[in-house]
Design brief:
- The complex is a heterodimer of chains A (366) and B (334).
- Chain A is of the alpha+beta class and 366 residues long.
- Chain A has 6 helices and 26 strands.
- In chain A, strands 14-11-12-13-26-25-24-18-22 form a 9-stranded antiparallel sheet. An 8-stranded antiparallel sheet of chain A has the order 6-2-3-4-17-16-15-10. A 5-stranded antiparallel sheet of chain A has the order 5-1-7-8-9.
- In chain A, strand 16 and strand 17 form a beta hairpin.
- In chain A, helix 1 runs antiparallel to helix 2.
- Chain B is α/β, with parallel strands linked by helices.
- Chain B has 14 helices and 5 strands.
- Chain B has a 5-stranded parallel sheet with strand order 2-3-4-1-5, with helices on both faces.
- Chain B starts with 10 loop residues before the first helix and ends with a helix.
- Classes of the chains: A alpha+beta (366), B alpha/beta (334).
- Chains A and B meet through loops of A and helix 4 of B.
Chain lengths: 366, 334
């Protein structure tokens, strides 16, 4: 195998795959990157088994073939080289020789046969998806993904795709984010899968950084996202996602409408004296006003009041101020609508500007 | 590559595993228990290979398909191995909670390319307590399509809650004749040597290649020498022989010698009371044992046996090897 490639292009390619290389794993080959050269250019593939990233790039190929070399070392070498052409060649002795100007390197390789293959998938079955829309959906839900590693199914975002809509759900048991978009999605039948948090981050990155249309396909135990010439394979989390629809309130007899801006400022003020562990503040919704109270124990108390538009019986409810601030940040818009039932049932916040977005928080006992 | 049929002397265990494999997906947790080196880890790997294999016949992996080759080269992404390690500033090998968290995290994903995931934990009895507790939930309900195999020498070192969550598969020492056959046929040993090694390794094929074999052979023949001359040994000689072992470097050697003596005396008693030859621990020495046993009375041997056990206990309380052995040799002289 032998090819010549522009240093800047090659560096970009190698930078991209660093995030999916597994340096200290049980399989040493996963620290490597697989480079395949054919007539049209080169393909670069790296995987840590949970995620794989494969991209095709233009290069001047003199002879075809494939090689795997340590991803980090190759990246470090290319980064230090001056901006000009890089010549890469695999010799018969199995060494990978890299040359640029007077600089010469020779790297150990591992047999490409041993490299895990990219999950097979049928190109024609890929389903188009609007990248910007998915990126926005991820941004609006990923804050609620659980960090608790004992409930692994919650360590990811739940995708539910049907022919007419797509839903994204994330929850950590204390709060839940749900977003739904209508549209025509080319899936034959509804499909669901859980994507781990790390893979969600990688997906966000390629959606925002790579040009081209976004397509996806769920294939056996993986879901594959294609953006431009880049392919991301994500190994799915095993297990059933909790029945989130149970948590979403179907009806509510207490609805408050208030200015998001005023609410957020009042929250910040009162939260200064909230309990440092629970961040709990007590909110009392009444006909004309919302009273926010925090009792910081020995430190003191804080109280604030803002005008609201409220329907229903007066209610006092304990909520995590930080969760509320997260929600206000995600909702955006001028007005926020809060639905409640009683002191212990889930509280739901929405914005009139995005009816598909629901933010749910479980109250705390006061 | 190892097949289940290549495992020697563990017919019951192999049969159990073959029948679980036959019933489709043998999902769940298994615990292989038995003495050191009898083939628990080898069986675990052979069975796992068969479960991954595309063309397994009656529990035997084909050895040539993709999954088999990947396992042989250590690049099967859906096979997870956990072994005890010395971590941080600790002094003993352990499986700690970070091993378990890592494994649980791996098993949370669906298989990368195979039909199932297999985790082999070789040395589960070296899991510390926090690690065991963290593992309970996963053992109780392994994630979909997952087989977990634990191996353990010492069942008592495992939490009862771990044992009760697994299907136990027992491994025993390999029978003497089978062991001799294996050493001659598969390892190309001469018959005489094979008989000695088979007896000294105590039915553990894993021990055959260890350095301990030579040491054991040597110590056993010293023990045999002591016994055959014990009746004529003058008192002065007893002290000379015993003092050979009275050095710090010989601490383990004394314990080993006591072990050998116990087994030899046990065999002599067996011969004397008319037990069948295939009940001997040292089958290769049957003739010598018979000759040596003639020189002692049954009562004498019985007392010696008790004394050896007492000495072993006393050794744990650091009685000097010189004292322990002198006492024993004097007792035999009577």
């Amino acid at each position: 195998m032998e090819f010549t490639i522009n240093r800047d292009d090659f560096l970009k390619v190698l930078q991209r795959v660093q995030g999916v290389v597994s340096i200290k794993g049980p399989m040493p080959i996963l620290a490597n990157v697989l480079i395949e050269a054919d007539e049209s250019g080169i393909t670069v593939y790296a995987t840590n088994l949970d995620m794989g990233l494969k991209g095709s790039y233009g290069a001047n190929v003199a002879s075809t073939g494939s090689v795997t070399v340590q991803a980090k070392k190759l990246h470090d070498i290319v980064r230090e080289l001056p901006s000009s052409d890089i010549h890469l060649k695999v010799d018969d002795d199995g060494r990978c020789r890299i040359a640029s100007g007077k600089s010469k390197f020779n790297l150990a390789t591992i047999d490409p046969e041993e490299f895990p293959s990219f999950p097979e998938h049928d190109e024609s079955k890929l389903i188009g998806l609007e990248g910007e829309m998915l990126g926005d959906m991820i941004r609006k839900t990923s804050y609620a993904i659980s960090q608790d590693e004992t409930r692994l199914t919650l360590n990811g975002a739940f995708f539910e795709v049907s022919p007419t809509n797509i839903r994204l759900v994330a929850t950590d048991g204390h709060r839940l984010a749900f977003v739904e978009r209508e549209g025509a999605f080319g899936v034959g039948e509804p499909t669901t899968f859980i994507v781990a948090r790390k893979a969600i981050q990688e997906l966000t990155k390629i959606i925002s950084e790579i040009d081209g249309d976004l397509k996806f396909l769920k294939q056996d135990n993986h879901v594959i996202f294609v953006k431009g010439s880049l392919r991301l394979s994500i190994r799915l989390i095993d297990g059933a996602y909790p029945n989130y629809e149970q948590v979403i309130p179907k009806s509510s007899d207490k609805t408050a409408r208030l200015s998001a801006n005023e609410f957020s400022h009042a929250l910040r003020r009162v939260a200064t004296l909230a309990d440092e562990k629970s961040h709990m503040i007590r909110l009392t919704f009444s006909e004309k006003s919302l009273t926010l109270v925090s009792e910081g124990g020995e430190l003191g108390e804080a109280k604030d009041e803002i005008p609201i538009d409220f329907e229903g019986d007066e209610i006092s409810i304990g909520l995590n101020a930080q969760y509320l601030l997260d929600v206000l940040g995600i909702l955006g818009g001028d007005e926020v609508v809060v639905n409640m039932q009683d002191q212990l049932r889930p509280v739901m916040a929405k914005t009139p500007e995005d009816p598909g977005l629901l933010c749910i928080i479980m109250p705390m006992r006061i | 590559m190892l097949k289940l049929d290549d495992i020697i002397g563990q017919n019951t265990a192999v049969k159990t595993l073959k029948s679980s494999g036959r019933s489709g997906k043998p999902i769940g947790a298994y615990l292989f228990t038995g003495p050191e080196g009898v083939g628990k880890a080898s069986t675990a790997l052979a069975w796992a290979t068969a479960l991954f294999c595309d063309a397994a016949v009656d529990g035997n992996a084909c050895g040539v398909c993709g999954p088999c080759r990947k396992i042989a080269s250590g690049s099967m992404p859906d096979l997870y191995m956990v072994k005890p390690e010395i971590r941080d500033r600790k002094t003993k090998q352990e499986i700690d909670i970070s091993h378990i968290r890592n494994l649980i995290g791996r098993l949370a994903y669906k298989p990368f390319e195979a039909r199932l995931k297999v985790a082999i934990m070789d040395g589960a009895d070296m899991m510390n307590k926090p690690a065991s507790n963290a593992f309970l939930k996963t053992l109780e309900e392994p994630p979909g399509d997952t087989v977990i195999i634990l191996t353990a020498v010492n069942l008592n070192a495992l939490l009862p809650t771990i044992v009760s969550r697994c299907r136990t598969v027992r491994f025993g020492p390999v029978a003497y004749d089978e062991m001799v056959g294996y050493l001659v046929d598969k390892r190309g040993m001469k018959m005489d040597r094979a008989r000695v090694v088979a007896a000294v390794s105590k039915g553990s094929p894993g021990m055959v290649d260890s350095d301990a074999i030579e040491e054991n052979v040597e110590t056993r023949s010293e023990a045999m020498g002591l016994l055959s001359h014990a009746s004529q040994n003058p008192v002065a000689n007893v002290y000379k022989v015993a003092s050979k072992f009275d050095k710090a470097a010989n601490k383990n050697k004394t314990d080993l010698l006591l072990d050998c003596l116990r087994e030899l005396v046990r065999d002599m008693l067996a011969v004397k009371t008319g037990a069948k030859y295939d009940n001997l621990l040292n089958m290769d020495l049957a003739a010598e044992l018979k000759a040596a046993a003639e020189k002692f009375s049954e009562r004498n041997l019985g007392r010696a046996f008790d004394l050896i056990n007492d000495m072993t206990l006393a050794r744990r309380r650091n009685i000097s090897p010189l004292l322990a052995l002198s006492l024993l040799l004097l007792e035999l002289k009577d």
